[in-house]
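Backbone-to-sequence.
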């Protein structure tokens, strides 16, 4: 900044000034002043409104704010970015000129502006990149002058020139992994080098590999982890260990999962008593094999969760454990951690106990098959299924009976059942998506979910009542501001959503969910309620679960694929040996805190990966259906256009310009009106569309509105 520019800035900091006032104040040549002022407006150092000049967003900082705020850049586009504050106080908007070349996942220091352009928002400038992130995935493209460049995934219209060395054999449209080899003060000054070549961005499988690379997902296990895992090649249980445990191999225990599941965490057993039921939930005893301080444990802690996408899984544990000695495979003796519960005739928990056990699953049950047995279609031949399930067939009606009673209890307390519209991707032998099927949950899926919930509830109760360190699954009540917005949206949809208090009860929300179930408005209402909620997370404090309406809740039932479950198995195991509360506090306080924080963070990352990859495969599938016409449901409305969801869960975008001849008017986020034609579109209404475009690399689908 020149001395004159500094003087100009100091002058307008006192009060906004016109050009003439600046000239009189600074006594400087008019031509020179105009040149400096124009340059400062172009760089954002000055802003001009109604003929007066004031400090611009790139220089006018808030003197009352901290000198700098540690943040992480979480979103980047060509003209703006968002930084997430490390103290958890929310996001800061960063205008393009104030980014100074910062990249997503860079650790940065940000200085706040005194006058953000949107009142009440936080805006600022990147003043320092403290820890740069230089590893990205992207798509090879051309720069404006025709040279090879790369556009990072998730950073639309941001391009870096590629260095010649290392980019040999790279073609337009390829998905690549690259490193930023040189950083400038602007994104256009950055330079990149290709270090991984994945293949054409026309294929979702190659784009998925790029996403995993860009998100630093661990695909391979380190040698020391594999060395420990090899000890369990073709392993069987230790007879000496089995002799120390409660032997439940004589009880008809079995598993119920999807047909393709290979990492089976949980099994069940049920006996009807004169005064109720005895339910057993038997979980793989992973903590027996994955010991504290081992390479297996350290790697599992870092991964924290398995990642499932398309027809693939990136496991938390090597297959020797996840699919082998820990998996509750049919006909094989396995070490388990059992929760044995007594329930009364209404399905309420009377008592429970946790025991180390040895079990043998009689049958690998499949959801679809169990559903066919529980709700047989007319004239269906079930002979083969009845033969397969002969050892456990008499348990199925009792399980269904208990589930129905538990469902009554869940509804009575206001437990929310939100329809999530999950999709199953059908792949061909080449790994391409050839069909998308909406997942329908039958009785057996809901039944197993309820039984797992019971065991999870008992585990959390054991941790809380014994006052020991624990990893709880918590879901806090929504905040009043989000509920106020939700209420306005629901009222605009024509629903009676006037809650008695600022925070609605679960019964009030559950009633709205039930009222709109299977109605055209179901998608936006259920999605709106879900988005208004806090995110469930892991915490060492028993904060309860708002959505399930439970004071006690933890994750106990999936230790093969989730680290929090493994963590509380370890703590509960020590409790069973008689360790005192004070000893457990000493041994596990820090561990519970660290496991909660790490698992929450990794869960968010895994869910984002799974969703983003699913979008790629959906785009790949729809690319083979370009030009086809469908009728979908309006699921989202923005000033730019509307989102339409098809019956197979695919969502695409229809630009407002196709719908409205005039300037579109969006009313309460639930409807769009064209003031020139009088036409309107509302959440939940049907819309006839044609598939116009499907960009696999971006996971984006565009629809064209078809006038009916």
């Amino acid at each position: 900044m020149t001395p004159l520019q500094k003087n100009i800035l100091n002058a307008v900091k006192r009060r906004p000034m016109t050009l003439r006032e600046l000239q009189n104040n600074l006594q400087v040549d008019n031509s020179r002043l105009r040149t400096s002022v124009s340059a400062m407006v172009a760089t954002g150092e000055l802003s001009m409104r109604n003929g007066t000049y004031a400090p611009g967003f790139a220089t006018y900082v808030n003197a009352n704010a901290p000198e700098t705020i540690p943040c992480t850049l979480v979103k980047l586009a060509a003209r703006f970015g968002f930084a997430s504050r490390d103290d958890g106080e929310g996001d800061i908007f960063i205008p393009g000129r104030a980014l100074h070349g910062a990249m997503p996942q860079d650790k940065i220091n940000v200085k706040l502006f005194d006058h953000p352009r949107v009142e009440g928002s936080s805006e600022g400038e990147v003043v320092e990149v403290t820890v740069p992130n230089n590893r990205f995935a992207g798509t090879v493209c051309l720069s404006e002058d025709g040279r090879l460049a790369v556009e990072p995934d998730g950073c639309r219209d941001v391009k870096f020139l590629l260095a010649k060395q290392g980019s040999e054999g790279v073609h337009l449209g390829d998905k690549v992994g690259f490193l930023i080899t040189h950083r400038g003060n602007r994104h256009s000054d950055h330079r990149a080098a290709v270090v991984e070549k994945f293949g054409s961005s026309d294929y979702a499988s190659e784009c998925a590999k790029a996403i995993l690379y860009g998100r630093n997902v661990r695909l391979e296990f380190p040698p020391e982890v594999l060395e420990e895992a090899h000890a369990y090649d073709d392993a069987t249980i230790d007879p000496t260990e089995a002799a120390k445990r409660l032997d439940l191999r004589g009880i008809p225990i079995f598993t119920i999962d999807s047909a393709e599941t290979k990492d089976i965490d949980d099994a069940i057993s049920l006996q009807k008593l004169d005064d109720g039921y005895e339910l057993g939930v038997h979980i793989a005893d992973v903590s027996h094999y994955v010991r504290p301080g081992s390479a297996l444990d350290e790697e599992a802690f870092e991964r924290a969760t398995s990642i499932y996408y398309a027809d693939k899984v990136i496991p938390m544990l090597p297959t020797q454990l996840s699919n082998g000695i820990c998996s509750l495979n049919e006909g094989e003796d396995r070490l388990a951690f059992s929760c044995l519960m007594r329930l009364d005739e209404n399905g309420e928990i009377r008592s429970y106990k946790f025991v180390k056990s040895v079990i043998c699953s009689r049958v690998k049950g499949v959801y679809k098959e169990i559903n066919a047995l529980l709700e047989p279609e007319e004239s269906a031949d079930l002979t083969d299924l009845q033969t397969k399930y002969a050892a456990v067939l008499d348990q199925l009606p009792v399980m269904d009976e208990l589930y129905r009673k538990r469902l009554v209890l869940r509804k009575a307390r206001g437990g929310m059942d939100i329809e999530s519209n999950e999709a199953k991707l059908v792949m061909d032998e080449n790994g391409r998506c050839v069909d998308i099927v909406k997942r329908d949950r039958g009785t057996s899926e809901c039944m197993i979910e309820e039984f797992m919930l019971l065991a999870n509830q008992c585990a959390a109760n054991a941790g809380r009542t014994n006052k020991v360190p624990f990893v709880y699954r918590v879901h806090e009540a929504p905040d009043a501001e989000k509920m106020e917005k939700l209420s306005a949206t629901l009222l605009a949809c024509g629903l009676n959503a006037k809650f008695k208090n600022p925070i609605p009860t679960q019964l009030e929300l559950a009633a709205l969910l039930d009222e709109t179930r299977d109605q055209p408005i179901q998608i936006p209402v259920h999605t709106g309620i879900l988005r208004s909620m806090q995110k469930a997370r892991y915490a060492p404090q028993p904060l309860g679960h708002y959505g399930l309406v439970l004071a006690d809740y933890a994750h106990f039932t999936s230790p093969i694929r989730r680290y929090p479950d493994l963590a509380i198995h370890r703590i509960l195991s020590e409790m069973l040996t008689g360790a005192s509360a004070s000893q457990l506090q000493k041994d596990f306080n820090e561990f519970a805190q660290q496991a909660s924080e790490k698992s929450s963070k990794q869960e968010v990352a895994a869910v984002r990966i799974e969703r983003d990859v699913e979008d790629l495969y959906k785009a790949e599938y729809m690319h083979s259906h370009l030009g086809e016409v469908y009728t979908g449901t309006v699921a989202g409305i923005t000033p730019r256009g509307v989102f339409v969801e098809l019956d197979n869960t695919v969502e695409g975008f229809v630009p407002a310009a196709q719908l409205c001849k005039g300037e579109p008017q969006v009313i309460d986020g639930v409807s769009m009106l064209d003031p020139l034609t009088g036409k309107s579109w509302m959440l939940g209404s049907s819309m006839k569309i044609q598939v116009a475009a499907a960009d696999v690399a971006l996971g984006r689908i565009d629809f064209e509105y078809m006038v009916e």
